[in-house]
């Protein structure tokens, strides 16, 4: 029992962080599944939704600002897709990736301009900060809410992908881009829906994630973004449940490492994991095998 | 065919230009006083040449070998630290490493060699740790390359980015404090006296990269970039050449890191983050992926724009326009928008994949009067072509609309839109010959 007593807080925190990573990772995994693009700007959309929350909460009630933040992230994400990725659809993969990096650079610099380089205080949402007793550990409400909310949202998303027409179109496009466009699927609509879902979930993730931190600054999105991408790769890129499982594993491992006193290397661990995964099982936990033909 | 210059003349021309440039830089650095606004020019030359070197090294990897690597900032970090650690004068150790009892290394290569060899020793003492920085980075890159280079395009990008982040965490680790000073800055190490120094070092390094690209190895690199499988079939050892390109590129990234340390006079691991890598990548893109000349031009333009020309945007007044929008940070926003424009509308960059050559330069100069004369005509032709394109587009649109309307009308009146193809019971793919 002593073991659980010491480690329970870390594991709980890990599950919560993992849920937040999962919400970001879905955006990465879906976009990669369909466009074969690492959307480097996704972490910055996440950061921007946090930033917008800081400004909105000063004039609006909580529920309204949360809804507006989600809407904002969706508009931002689809605009990025329309302006920066769509014109390059037939260009080589390297140029679209460079475009994504350019967008990320732009979003970070714009955030730097808006905030003046200062760390903004994230609003405390009283309900999420309530203390809760689980077994021997005391945590905040957000720790309990995050995994539940994540699992519910992921369940809804999987239902959407499996049982609706647009979900079927998504699966088809991710399997074969060109053939599905020949079959009369409106590719642009599918991609827009993908970005809407990804960015909306990232916005929800940002509300939960930044509740754990006091401040937010232009670079806040980069690290969680990279980690969420690693989670997506870990679970098998293109697979939604895979990304979620990967994110939970990364979240828990990271917090256990923090618990053992190696905080400096908790970030490094994620990348070591990425490299090990790519070496041992490049398709990830749930990924499908992909053979390159000449 | 245009008469080309012989190679001797070209070499002479290049040598004269380089010598003149170095002389100008040397003279400028000595004449411009510290308070002058032209001091920025010197900063741009120094920083520009450092970034030209790292951009060229990244181009070797991304543009010539087709390996999309994003680890350049991490390698610069190691280079910068290696140089700084070995050149802090013995007397300053207690001050720099104030939280770590004066640090582990209590000597400076520069001082040891200066005692023995005088002024020559001073420069040798700067040169050795710089090359050493490159070699250490190359060694680390060699080790990282073994697992990482087996990955494909975007996975390689993320893995190298990840390694750069790990290195950053590692250098800020408190346990390594006696060597790296933890998360505190390193300072007081030996730096160069004149802006000519980074220009010369960067110039020599870029020349070596160019020689490499034009060698057999360079051709093998390009073969890998164009088609990995075909290159392998032609007998190019993929892993060996990828590793070689990675190690050499990292070596020069390390050297440029050492130069950057000298330029900044203090270093800290924090700024060597992903943003720095992105900036280097964007320099390569602006110049043209696959052109070293482009990377050099891109680096100077990038630093000139961000350090000098657009500075006014932060101060509230630029080109005589003043606006309350212009507060600190606005420069970077405008800059990022400009870069996005280049990425979206001018994807091949300034030079595309062409290199500078005297032949092309003179041909271009010669063609100018002719081009100037025909400019109005060409402009007219261009606008006419544009008009025509617009007209044909409108016509096509109208036609499509008419056809659609017709179809809708027919559909409404119950007429059949398609006549189905006759279906036969037997399907003959290839009829037998003679039948």
Short recap of the structure:
The complex is a heterodimer of chains A (294) and B (435). With 294 residues, chain A is mostly helical. Chain A is 73% helix and 4% strand.
Task: Describe the protein's architecture and organization.
The complex is a heterodimer of chains A (294) and B (435). Chain A has 294 residues and is mostly helical. Chain A has a single domain (2-280), classed as Orthogonal Bundle (ABC transporter involved in vitamin B12 uptake, BtuC), CATH 1.10.3470. Chain A has helices at 2-35, 42-56, 62-85, 93-115, 126-129, 141-163, 165-175, 177-182, 187-211, 222-235, 240-259, 266-280; strands spanning 120-121, 131-134, 137-140, 215-216. In chain A, the strands form two sheets. Chain A has a two-stranded antiparallel sheet with strand order 1-4. In chain A, helix 6 crosses helix 7 (165-175), helix 10 packs parallel to helix 12 (266-280) and helix 11 (240-259) crosses helix 12 (266-280). Chain A starts with a helix and ends in a 14-residue tail after the last helix. In chain B, the strands form two sheets. A two-stranded antiparallel sheet of chain B has the order 1-2. A two-stranded antiparallel sheet of chain B has the order 3-4. Chain B has one domain (11-359): ABC transporter involved in vitamin B12 uptake, BtuC, CATH 1.10.3470. Chain B has 435 residues and is an all-alpha fold. Chain B starts with 6 loop residues before the first helix and ends in a 23-residue tail after the last helix.
């Amino acid at each position: 029992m002593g073991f659980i007593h010491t480690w329970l807080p870390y594991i709980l925190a890990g599950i919560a962080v993992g849920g937040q990573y999962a919400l970001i990772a879905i955006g990465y995994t879906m976009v990669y599944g369909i466009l074969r693009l690492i959307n480097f700007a996704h972490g910055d959309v996440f950061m921007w939704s946090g930033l917008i929350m800081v400004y909105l909460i000063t004039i609006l009630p909580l529920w309204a600002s949360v809804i507006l933040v989600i809407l904002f992230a969706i508009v931002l994400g689809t605009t990025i897709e329309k302006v920066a990725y769509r014109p390059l659809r037939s260009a080589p993969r390297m140029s679209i990736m460079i475009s994504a990096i350019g967008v990320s650079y732009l979003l970070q610099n714009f955030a730097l301009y808006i905030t003046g380089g200062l760390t903004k205080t994230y609003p405390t949402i009283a309900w999420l900060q309530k203390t809760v007793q689980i077994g021997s550990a005391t945590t905040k409400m957000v720790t309990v809410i995050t995994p539940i909310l994540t699992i519910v949202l992921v369940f809804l998303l999987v239902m959407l992908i499996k049982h609706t027409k647009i979900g079927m179109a998504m699966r088809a496009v991710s399997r074969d881009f060109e053939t599905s466009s020949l079959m009369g699927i409106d590719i642009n609509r599918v991609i827009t829906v993908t970005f809407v879902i990804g960015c909306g979930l990232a916005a929800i993730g940002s509300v939960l994630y930044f509740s754990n931190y006091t401040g937010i600054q232009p670079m806040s999105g980069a690290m969680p973004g990279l980690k969420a991408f690693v989670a997506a790769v870990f679970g098998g890129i293109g697979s939604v449940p895979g990304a979620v499982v990967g994110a939970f594993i990364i979240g828990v491992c990271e917090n256990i490492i923090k618990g053992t006193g190696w905080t400096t290397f908790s970030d490094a661990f994620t990348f070591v994991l990425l490299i090990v995964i790519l070496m041992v099982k490049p398709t990830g936990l749930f990924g499908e095998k992909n053979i390159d033909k000449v | 065919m245009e008469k080309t210059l012989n190679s001797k003349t070209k070499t002479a021309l290049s040598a004269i230009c380089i010598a003149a440039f170095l002389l100008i830089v040397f003279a400028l650095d000595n004449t411009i006083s510290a308070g002058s606004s032209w001091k920025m020019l010197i900063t741009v030359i120094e920083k520009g040449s450092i970034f030209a070197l790292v951009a060229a090294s990244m181009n070797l990897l991304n543009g010539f070998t087709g390996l999309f690597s994003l680890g350049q900032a991490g390698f610069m970090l190691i280079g910068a630290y290696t140089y700084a650690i070995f050149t802090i004068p013995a007397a300053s150790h207690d001050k720099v490493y104030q939280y770590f009892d004066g640090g582990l290394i209590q000597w400076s290569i520069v001082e040891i060699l200066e005692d023995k060899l005088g002024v020559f020793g001073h420069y040798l003492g700067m040169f050795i740790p710089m090359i050493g920085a490159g070699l250490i980075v190359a060694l680390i890159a060699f080790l990282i390359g073994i697992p990482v280079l087996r990955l494909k395009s975007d996975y390689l990008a993320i893995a190298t980015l990840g390694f750069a982040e790990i290195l950053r965490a590692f250098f800020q680790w408190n346990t390594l404090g006696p060597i790296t000073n933890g998360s505190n800055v390193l300072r007081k190490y030996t730096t160069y006296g004149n802006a000519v120094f980074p220009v010369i070092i960067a110039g020599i390094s870029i020349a070596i990269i160019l020689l490499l690209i034009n060698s057999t190895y360079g051709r093998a690199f390009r073969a890998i970039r164009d088609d990995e499988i075909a290159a392998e079939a032609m007998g190019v050892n993929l892993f060996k050449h990828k590793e070689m390109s990675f190690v050499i590129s990292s070596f020069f990234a390390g050297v440029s890191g050492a130069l950057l340390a000298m330029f900044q006079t203090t270093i800290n691991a924090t700024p060597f983050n992903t943003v720095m890598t992105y900036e280097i990548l964007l320099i390569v893109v602006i110049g043209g992926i696959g052109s070293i000349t482009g990377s050099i031009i891109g680096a100077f333009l990038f630093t000139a724009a961000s350090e000098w020309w657009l500075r006014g945007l932060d101060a509230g007044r630029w080109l005589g326009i003043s606006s309350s929008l212009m507060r600190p940070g606005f420069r970077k926003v405008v800059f990022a928008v400009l870069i996005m424009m280049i990425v979206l509308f001018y994807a091949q960059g300034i030079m595309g994949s062409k290199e500078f050559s005297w032949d092309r330069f003179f041909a271009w100069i010669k063609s100018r009067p002719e081009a100037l004369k025909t400019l109005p005509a060409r402009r007219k032709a261009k606008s006419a072509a544009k008009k025509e394109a617009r007209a044909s587009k409108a016509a096509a649109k109208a036609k499509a609309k008419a056809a659609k309307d017709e179809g809708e009308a027919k559909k409404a009146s119950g007429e059949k839109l398609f006549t189905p193809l006759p279906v036969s019971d037997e399907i003959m793919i290839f009829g037998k010959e003679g039948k």
